[in-house]
Amino acid sequence: MEPMIDRIGGEPQVKLLVNHFYDLIETLPQGRAIMEMHLKGHGLSHVRSEQFDFLCGFFGGRRYYHEKHGHMNLREIHAHVEIRLQDAEDWLAVMDRAMVETGVAQKERAQIMATFQRAALVLVNVD
104: Cβ–Cβ under 8 A, 6 or more apart, which residues? Predict the structure, then answer.
């Protein structure tokens, strides 16, 4: 089966998705807590490039994030921030909207969101 990255349009689509996702995070009410998390953590300057690097590998393409950091462990990546269930749900809602608005097809979007939902819920670390 063709890797997800190819099914959704390759690295250009991943870049478009990441940029649109963070544009939404920076402007939508659901993004406020996520923005604050980034500002308390490592800041905003790196988030778009790091998410692009991570998602390329996550979607079955080149593993840029792994090449830079030696792992792709989501818990380790997010260990420095408190993540509530509401934060995970907000992230998922904004990502789903970003995928719709950047033209990711329904079939692929459903598969991606199922995986993202499992991953996001694993990251919840506070009540």
Answer: 8, 13, 17, 112
**Structural domain count, the chain:** 1
The CATH number covering residue 14 comes to 1.10.490.10
State residue 70 phi and psi, 5-degree precision: 80, 5
Q: Which structural domain range is residue 115 located in? A: 4-123
> What pTM was estimated for this model as a whole?
0.93
pLDDT digits (tens, 9 = 90+) for 105-120: 999 999 999 999 999 9
Say if residues 78 and 19 touch (Cβ distance below 8 Å): no
> CA angle, 100 as apex, 53 and 107 as ends, to 5°?
85
